[in-house]
Here is the input.
Amino acid sequence: MDRSEHVRWFAREVLPHEPDVRRWLLRRIRGLPGCHVDEIVQEAYARLWAVGAERIMNPRAYFFVTARHVVGEVLRRARVVSIETVADVETLDVADHDVGPERRLSGREEIERLQRVLDKLPPKCREAFELRKFAELSQREIAQRMQLSESTVEKHLVKALRIIMRELQESDVGADGSTSKQHGYRHRAR
Amino acid sequence: MGTVIEPDDIDEIAAQWVLRLDREALSEAQQRELDAWLEADSRHRGAFVRAQAMWVDADRVAALSAGRVQPTPRVEPRRYLRAAAIAALVLAVTLAGVRISDRYLAGRESTQIGEVRRLTLDDGSALALNTSSIVQVKFDDDVRRVVLRQGEASFQVRHEEQRPFVVQAADVTVRAVGTAFTVRMRGDDVEVTVTEGVVEVTRRGGSQRIAAERVSRNQQLVVAEASKQPIVVAALSEPEISRRLAWQEGQLVFQGEQLAAAVAEVNRYSLTPVVIDDAALGAKSFVGVFRIGDSRAFAQAAAAAFGAKVQEADGALHLQAPSR
Here is the structure.
């Protein structure tokens, strides 16, 4: 599997689970020092990447377990003295019980999310993004079409990608998510 | 991990590299720069692959949406989305009710030691009952009343303009319209912690009635029975509030408390109490997360951490300093 295939595998098999992993992380590390969800997610992606796609049979479970390990390490480092955490004591049943049913977005929801992203982009930035992704023009062609320098086009596209990244980050604290984040009434009772 | 750079900065740099690669093949110098950046920190590698995956994923969604994404901003999609969000919320609430308890709550409810239970009230409000707690619920046409007889309960109140939600704990009354808060009876004291909105707390002291006190988000109010200063409001940080309410997730979170204080908390949830036999041990501070009700795991972890040993006797777990 070459790099671009590997990236597509990530897009298909790992990305869809990120909101659930973030939700789970928020509960898991609440109030703990030195734990930052974004950092744990970055670290988990690095480890999943290093393992390679072929060796990961169940990406969702692997993602959760990896995130759990990272949390454990951060906790051990941050701690005054070492104490086993719940996360360490618990069995590896995260993928079955702890995270609830899989919530992969439907095609319609994905399109809605893209629409939401597009609506957030400033006009030039949006135009550049649409030309790149819908019209499939290269950055150079977009620069000619829009009469901008290539580096300006690149900057517009960086901005668009950042907004896409944030949209995924925030999908776990949306209008309805905020309640569950604070109180967890959507989670099952133990 | 451990450097001062923010995750957000890393994402920004990762996105820049993704688009640089999208623009043209990297020069040798650029490639070296990218390699060095990736090599410097595993978070960089993670952020980079994540950003690449998202960039690639946009192709798929764009293809999926062919002709369906609006090329210019319009108003309707947003309105539609809002409706969808409300529908999702309703669904989530419904699911929660079903999964947590197959019935609606009426009358008296209680939990055993170590039990945490979530219930849905018949107005749609949610209630989480902590260990060894008792509530009584009585809803009328003009008021929704819950009496906390013992223990601790968290409320997520469904907004109803005409029918306030009132929680009574001893002589303390907490009044809310639509908000989220927790009431705990601690000996003769009553603690009210607000996580959303505002509540109004009043107290009847014999014939006198102490003026209403407003408690808002991330504040805690303590009504101490014995104290001359009957009402104290303190602001709590969001992580601190989360930490205190971790029982709702079946967890106990400690952050630098002394072992003795942590043990008192652990023992609230367990029939097999932990007893510290060594005062010096009790004064040790630590950080940790534990599952509620598992005092044995707590005792063993603490013993391992502080070089103590666990002796089980008379139905209790004794933490003892190692013999010298």
Q: What stands out?
A: The longest helix of chain B spans residues 76-100.
